[in-house]
Batch of 2 targets.
Target 1
Amino acid sequence: MTRSTKDSHRSPLPVAVVGAGPVGLVAAAHLLARGETPLILEAGEAVGASIREWGHVRLFSPWKHLTEPVSRRMLEAHGWTHPPGESLPTGWELVRDFLEPLANLPSLAPHLHLGQRVVGITRQGFDKVRTAGRQAAPFELVVRTREGGIQRHRARAVLDASGTWTTPNPVGAGGLPAEGEEEFRDHLRYGIPDIRGAERARYAGLRTLVVGSGHSAFHSVLELSRLGEDAPGSEVIWAVRGTEPGGMFGGGGRDALPARGRLGEGLRALVTEGSVRLVTGFRVARIEGSGDRLQVVAECGTRLDPVDQIIVNTGFRPDLRILRELRIDLDPWLEAPAKLAPLIDPNLHSCGSVPPHGYDTLGHPEQDVFVLGMKSYGRAPTFLVLTGFEQVRSVVRGLTGDLEGARRVELVLPETGVCSSDFLAGTWAPDGVRDGTPDGGADRGPAAVPAAIPATAPRPPTGSACCG
Ligand SMILES: Cc1cc2nc3c(=O)[nH]c(=O)nc-3n(C[C@H](O)[C@H](O)[C@H](O)COP(=O)(O)OP(=O)(O)OC[C@H]3O[C@@H](n4cnc5c(N)ncnc54)[C@H](O)[C@@H]3O)c2cc1C
C-alpha cells in the first residue's frame, strides 16, 4: 500500500476531528494554521464536555503546561491574554479561559459541531475487508445528533481525540464488572464526584469506600477526609489491589509538577496518622446488599465493613467501537497504537519520561487515521496534555506533507520524580495504574516486573492487608 498523504492533503474534503477537548481543539487550530479545513464533531453540548464533569478538580499542571504555541498565537491575535503561567486552574477554569476562547475564534467556530456523537467510521463503500481501491475512498463518519437523527460526513483524514473519560473501568479486579456491580449501580459513582460541593449530601455522615490507586483515588480520599472534618460520621475506607502501599504516593518533592507531588504526600500523611483506613491486597470480586448498606467482598473471601457508597477510581479504557470498521493496529493489552505502546507501558517507563512521538509512531495500516490525546494512551495512565499537543503538531505536519516537520521533536515533559527504584503508580495516573501495573496489568516480558518498593517505604499503621 502506498501512502498518499502528499496528494490527499490537496483534497477539498475536511479533516475530521472527533472530540472538542483540549487535544481536539488544538488539532483544529493546527489544521487551520496549515490551510486545512477541520470538521470538529463533539458529542457534548459544549466544548470540553468531559473536563466539565470533573471541573471542580484542580489540575496539577500549571497553566504554562496546558496551552500550546499555535493556538496561543491565534488567541493572542484576538486580544486573549495567557493566564499566569505558574498558577493551577481547575477543570472549569481550563475550559473557560482556554478551550472556550479557542472554540469561539471566528476562524474555528464555524467548523465546530456540538451535540454530534460519532458512532462509526469507515471508508465510504469499503468495509474493513476490502482492499482494492480502499486508499482512494474518503472516510465516512456516522454521527448521532442530539435529536436522535443520523448524519453522515465525509473526510479525507480522521483524528480521533475522543478521550477515555466516558468509559471508566469497572470495580471488578478482573476488568469485568464485579458480581452485584450492576445491581447496586445506584450506590456506585465512577469518575470524580464533587464530594464537598454539589454531591456533598451523597457522602456526608456516611461511610464511603474508594477503590483504586491513582490520582483520582487520591483526590476522592482526600476530599472525603476533609468532608469528615465538618460532617461528623463521614468515614472513608480505601481499598487498593497491591500489597505494598509505600510507592503509591508518587515522587513527592522530586516531582517536577509540585502539585502532583503534594497530592501523594498529603495522602501519605493521612494514611500514616490513621485518619484514612487503607486496605491493601484487596481485589474486588463481589458486592452484596447488607441491610441498606453494601458489603464488598474480595476474591479471597475477605469482607470489608459495610459501606453506604462506593467511588470507583479504577481507571479508564478507550471506547474502540467507533474504530471497528477501520484497519487499526492496537497493542493487545494497553489498547494504544501498537508502536506507541512500548514507549508508554508503565511496566517499563516509570519516570513519565515518555519520548515525544507523533506521525510515524501513531500511524495505522489504515492510512490517515490517528488516535490522539488521552485515547492514544489506551489503558496506560501517564498521559499529559502536553504530550497530546506534540502529537497534534507532528501528525498535522505529516498529514500536510511536511514529513521533516513531523519528525522534529518539540517537547520536553515534566518528570514525575518516580523512577524504577521506587516505581509504582507515581506518574499521573488518574486511576489506571492499580498498584504498579496498568489496569489489566500483564507484564511485557522479564523487564516488566516492577522493582521492589524501597525498604524505607512507610507501612501505614492503620492499613490492614487483605489476602495479598
Ligand atoms: C481529573 C483529571 C485531572 C487531570 N489533570 C491533568 C493535569 O494536571 N495535567 C495534564 O497534563 N493532564 C491531566 N489530565 C489528563 C488529560 O490531559 C486530560 O484528561 C485531558 O482532558 C485529555 O484531553 P483530550 O482532548 O485527549 O480528551 P478529553 O478532554 O477527554 O476530550 C474528549 C472529548 O471528546 C468528546 N467525545 C467523546 N466521545 C465522542 C464521540 N463518540 N463523538 C464525538 N465526541 C466525543 C467528549 O465529549 C470530550 O469533549 C487529567 C485528567 C483527569 C481526568
Target 2
Amino acid sequence: MSSSQSLEPARAVDNVRAADTTHAADTTHAADTANAADNVRVQRKPGHVDRSRAIKTPHPVDDSEPARPSRTIPIVQTVLGLLDPSDLGVCYGHEHLLGAPPLDVSDNPDFVLDDEEAAADELLRFRRAGGSTVVEMSTADYGRDAAGLRRLSRRTGVHVICATGYNKDVFSARIVEGASVDVLANRFTAEILEGIDDTGIRAGLVKASSTLDQISPLAARVFRAAAAAHHRTGAPISTHTEAGTMALEQARLLAAEGVDLRHLIIGHMDRKLDREYHLDVVSTGCFVGFDQISKTKYYTDIQRAETIACLVDRGFGRQILLGGDLARRSYWPGYGFTDAPGLEYILRHFVGLLRDVGLSAGQTDDLLVNNPARAFAFRVDGGDVLASQPRRQLG
Ligand SMILES: [Zn+2]
C-alpha cells in the first residue's frame, strides 16, 4: 500500500458512512432490490435450501471473458445454499469442525477431527450460547469434508460456510507444484459456482496461506488464483498468516491483482499483537481475524481484548472478526475434554472481557454479527457490499 492509499484512522468510519449514504441515495438501489425480491427468495434456516436463489453462471461471451454470476443484492454461500447476510447472526470467522492433516505431515491424533457426534455436540453448545454461523476453514489439502459439514448443519441448525483454496505450503505444495495459476483458479471457481467434488456443496470463500515471514512462490500462485476466483465469482478471500506475519504483503499482493481489499479477511492477526502493525493492516481496508481466542499459549485474552479496544477506539471496529480456530480434539468438551474452551468460549467468556475493556454492546455486535455479514458477503456486481449494512442486536 502506498501511504496515499491508507485511510487515516479517524477517517475510516466516515468513509464507510459516506459509502453507505451514497448508496442509499442511489436511486438504482431500490429498483435492484425490488427486482431481486421478485426473482429471489432467501433461505432462512439451515435445512431449507432454496435452489431458486442459486448463483447462476452466465454463458461467457468468449473464453477471454470469465464467467461471473450476476447479482444485485448481497449473499453469503453456506453448505446448504445461499443466505441473506443479515441472517448469519452470531458468526465465528475461522473454525474447524471436521478435517485432519495428511498423515505424512502430522500423525498427531489430537489434530484429527473426525467425529461428527462430537462436532454436533459442540455446535449445539455454540447454538445454546447464542451462536448461529461457523466459517469452517479446512481446505481440500487438510481433509475438508463438505458432505460431513452439510450433515452437521442440517442436524444442528447452525449455518456453516466452507472453503475452497489451500492451506500453507506444507499441506498444499504437493498439489500446487504441478498446477498453474489458471488451473488453480479454475478449480477454486468450480468449487464456488458448481460444487465440491460431486457433492453439489459450494464453497463460500477462497483461502490462501503464507508461511512464517514469507509468501513462497507456490503460495503466491495460490494467492493469485484466489484473486482470479474472487474476480470471477465475487467470493471473499480469507487468509492464513503464520504467527500474524506477512499480512501487509498479502494485502499488497492481492491489491496488485485488483482485489478490493474490503473483500479480504486476514487471519490469525492475534498471533502478533503489535498495535502499529495492526493499524497499518486495517488501514488497507481489509478485515482482520482475532481468531486464536482462548489460546493463552500465544497471548492472554485480556491482551487480545485490549488490542481490539485500541482498534475500535481508532475507528476500525467494523473490520474485526472473532474466532477460536479450535483445530484440536483437546480444545473441545465435545471430545471429552471437559475443561476445554470449545465453541462456547467466545460467547460465554470473551465477550465479557470485551465489555470489561470498554466496548459497548453495539460494538461487540459489530465483531460477531455485523462485520461477518459484510466480510462473508460476495461482492455485488455494480454495487457495494457495504451498502447492505445489517444492524442486528444480539438477543
Ligand atoms: Zn485454521
